Fold:
Amino acid sequence: MSLHGIHTIDTAFQRDHFDAAYLIVEDGRGAFVDCGTNHSVPHLLAAVQQAGITPADIDLLIVTHVHLDHAGGAGLLMQQLPNATLVAHPRAAPHLIDPEKLIAGATAVYGEEEMQRSYGTLLPVPEARVRVVEDGEKVMSVGVAHANETWHEITGSYDDELTIGDDGKALFKVHGGKLAVWVRKKD
Structure:
C-alpha cells in the first residue's frame, strides 16, 4: 500500500536540512519535484521505497529550474526511473539533455574538485524522455491539497514558470521570476 501525499526529502546538499526535493504520491503512482544532485539520488530512491512504491511507479520528474542543487542529479535519477518523463521549462530542457554548458560554467566557477564534491558527474537525460512544457501548460493534477487545510506562500527569486498542483491549488510554482511554494500550516 502506498503512502498518499506529498513527502519532503532532505537532499543533503552541503548539509542536512538545507535543500529539499518532493515526492508526490497518489493512487500508487509518484512524481518527483526537483531531485537535488547526484549525491541525492539514494535519498530519493529510499523515499520511494518508504512511500510503498517502486521506481517503476514514478511517472514524472519535474524540475522547477536548472540550478545544479535542484536538477543536477536528473540524469542519474532518470536512469533509475524506467517509466518516468522529465518535465522542464523550454529554457531548462536543453541543459538537461546536454549538460556540457552547465558543467563548463559551474566548473569554471567552482573548480573540478568542488564540482565532484558538491554535484558528482552530471549525466544527460535522453531527449526522448524529456517533456518541454510551455508557460501555462498543465502538467499534472494532485488531490492531496484539501480545502480544509491552511496553506501559506513562501517566495524566492528564480526564472521561468512551472506550476505543480491542481486548479487554483498550486503547491509549487515558478512564475514571473519568483518561486512560490505553498506549505501547510503546522497543526
User: Anything to note?
Assistant: The chain has six helices and ten strands. The chain has a mean pLDDT of 78. The beta strands are 5-10, 20-26, 29-33, 58-62, 85-88, 130-132, 151-157, 162-166, 169-175, 178-184.
